[in-house]
Amino acid sequence: MTSVLEIRDVAKRFGATTALDGVDLTLHAGEVHALIGENGAGKSTLMNVLAGAVRPDRGAMQVDGRPYAPAAPGDARRRGVALIHQELCLCPHLSAAENMLLGLEPTRGRGGWVDGSAARRRALTLLEHFGGGPALDPDERVADLPLAAQQVVEICRALAADARILLMDEPTSSLQREDVDRLFALIRQLAARGIAVIYISHFLEEVREIAGRYTILRDGRSVDRGSITGTSNDQLIAHMVGRAALTPWSALRSGEGERHEGNVILTVHDVAAPPVLKHASFELRRGEVLGIAGLMGSGRSELVRALFGLEPRASGRIALHGRQLAVPGASPARRVAQGLGYLSEDRRREGLALALSVADNLTATRFSACSPGWGWLDLDRQRVAARGWIDTLHIRAATPAQPVRTLSGGNQQKVAIGRLLHQDAEVLLLDEPTRGIDVGSRAQIYEAIARCAAQGKAVLMVSSYLPELFGLCNRLAVMSRGRLSPARLIEQWTPETVLATAIGGAREEF
Questions:
Q1: Is-above-0.70 flag for pTM?
Q2: CATH classification code of 3-245
Q3: Assigned CATH topology for domain 246-339+426-434+462-510
Q4: Blockwise average pLDDT, block size 10, the chain, 510 residues
Q5: Cα angle vertex 370, ends 364, 371, to 5°?
Q6: CA distances to 55, 209, 391, 394 from 398, in Å
Q7: Does residue 194 come out as left (phi exceeding 0), alpha (psi in the -120 to 50 range) or beta?
């Protein structure tokens, strides 16, 4: 096969931190090549080097047999290399079409005026690749789009540049299964046309479905490569973590027997948040994990946001330990004081204060644990508390004082979860808790959630990933078109009935 990209001994340091320490990779025309590794292994740094956003300290690269050393992302795009970021890199104040064609706007006349009609037609053509996927108006502001639609805009922008090498960093992290199927069909079409794809994913089942070959990074080095079909998941995981590892589900099963469901902690009756969330009623018991499944846009996220006081138009009744809580006029600060904790699906915009340190983020919702009183913060006590969570969750941070924005996406997610554990909330509202988490770290997160339940906390968990719902939850309810089905024991569901309920709506006779 023809080689379109050659990477040899690429290395990069950021101060005292080594991000890459000798990476080798060969990419062929028309292939989908999986890049696998734990959070912090160097995958995103390598993608940024290839995309021209970061210059390596050493090593050599070639594209189509010619030296390749892009000084900026524009140089990379001109050589046919385009990056689809894990953390979406869009201009929220611009429309979807303007984002797709940024720097490639069609013009008319000698004055170079942007041809809005032609831009819209081009955007619609790009969207046709998704075969009627997420409803997306090219004129709508990106800030007003759900995450799945924003992901589609990011992919369309790469396609608009006529890239011959696509770098996809967790492109399905915000997509539902039907959108993933459309994306995979598109990737196969592109590969058939000779376009090469480097595909990063923490989901090994995705890797097996779409990729032919793989390269594994560990601690900034390429430690293994080969054919996906000839390598087991256990072998892949062992190379990723440097040792034989338990699968996430075996770790979950080992803790299942320790759960003891108790009295009802939270009662939710007829909660709504127009226009998306129409009706939700359920009970949440001490020591249980209640899962919420459903398609993107069904009202899952709006439910947990309404419970946490983030939906100003929310209505209905909520009781904590039998005591009624205000729904209209509720605020997150009040919910924190009442013993509720919330993990947003969007860690960059809502879940973290990126400019602050790891320690500040970990302790933000319970500074009192690090205070001697009178509003003072004991920095030594805060540092010790933060170091404890860094060690417990295996967060890759040099010190607790490191800015959280400098961490990899998966380690940022661990910080967001660590904040909830430090808060010691009685009721945990988790929206996509393992988004962007690698297979090894995911097991640690599952163990932390199971531990919370074993300690008598109540967990409400929204997830798009059915295996973790079936592996972790005691009961499950499905959201469809803004309405929540009755919650039933997990043994009474199958993946097929979950999907049927999500698509067809909750049926009383089920």
A1: no
A2: 3.40.50.300
A3: Rossmann fold (3.40.50)
A4: 91 86 95 88 92 95 95 91 81 92 84 86 84 72 82 83 88 74 86 92 86 93 93 85 52 45 90 93 96 86 95 93 91 93 88 92 88 83 92 89 88 91 94 81 86 93 89 94 93 87 54
A5: 110
A6: 22, 36, 11, 12
A7: left
